[in-house]
Amino acid sequence: MTLIYCRNVGKTIRIVENQDISQGIIIQLGNFRRWTLYLKTQDAINITVELSPDGGLTWFEIPESPISFSNASDNVIEFGYDATHVKLTGSNTTPVTAIIRGVY
Predict the structure, then answer these.
(1) How many CB atoms neighbour CB 85 within 10 A?
(2) Rounded to a whole number, what is the distance in angstroms from the first to the last CA of the chain?
(3) pTM of the full predicted structure?
(4) Omega before 63 cis (within 30°)?
(5) Residue 3: pLDDT above 80?
(6) Among candidates 84, 102, 99, 76, which has minimal Cα distance to 9?
(7) How far is CA 94 from each of CA 5, 14, 38, 62, rounded to the nearest angstrom?
(8) Which pairing describes strands 34-41 and 73-79: parallel, antiparallel, or unpaired?
(9) For residue 103, what pLDDT is reported?
(10) Region 18-45: what's the mean pLDDT?
(11) Could you give all domains of the chain from N- to C-terminal order, each with its CATH number?
(12) Nearest alpha carbon to residue 103 among 4, 2, 7
């Protein structure tokens, strides 16, 4: 028996590392089949997640938003939405690390 291992080709986008996102940060996505958002916070914060289907002209807040952290914590969220851009906005100046892993 021969085992064939197929690996989905993807890309990791390091958005911010321990930075204030209270003014909002916009990320251009690749043409991913699926993507996952990895978040790490240094303290309590709510993070609003908005998606744009048209290159950042129009924004829609997703039903899972805001993502709430009551203290320093991690969260991983896989999204099934198609979008060209993602906007993350923090409710305060707590440092945030955000990474997206997308699979083509």
Answers:
(1) 17
(2) 29
(3) 0.87
(4) no
(5) no
(6) 102
(7) 41, 18, 16, 22
(8) antiparallel
(9) 87
(10) 94
(11) 10-103 (2.60.120.1050)
(12) 7
